Amino acid sequence: MPSDVNSLAHTKWNCKYHVVFAPKYRRQIIYGKLKQDIGMILRQLSERKGVEIIEAQACKDHIHMMVSIPPKISVASFIGYLKGKSSLMIFDRHANLKYRYGNRKFWCKGYYVDTVGRNKKVIAEYIRNQIQEDVVAEQLSMFEHIDPFTGEEVKRSKKKK
């Protein structure tokens, strides 16, 4: 049996997911002073639910995580808990953000999730390299953008002055 199999009372399990979520309006606030604090908050909340963070990366305007979620917790309920509680904790620790995000919702409504399966090493490497990939993406023209959720190139039209 593989070494990364976990167990509950009557269950053997290996449930790993690649999750991506972003701050409201894709604001690039994760970088800077908040990056480390948000990371600690997400780790603390994950530990409370018995979820292991295998790999994580805070990019400029989104977060990538590879997590191992016990089968007794649905992915949707865990992400709802993580985003809801972390929003409250971020606003409590950084009161100045309340004025920018009036309704105390730090994260966007949606998220991306994919099962890891046997691609653990590939996805972990992908998450580790996200910062470098963001730098490369920024070198594209202002009118080209790669959507992090679909990987498709989005071309924007030039605005007339």
TrEMBL record:
Domain Transposase IS200-like span(s) in chain numbering: 12-130
Record's signal peptide: none
Database matches in SMART domains: Y1_Tnp
Record-level GO BP terms: DNA transposition
InterPro entries in alphabetical order: Transposase_17, Transposase_17_sf
GO molecular function: DNA binding; transposase activity
Name used for this protein in its record: Putative transposase
Source organism of this protein record: Sporolactobacillus nakayamae
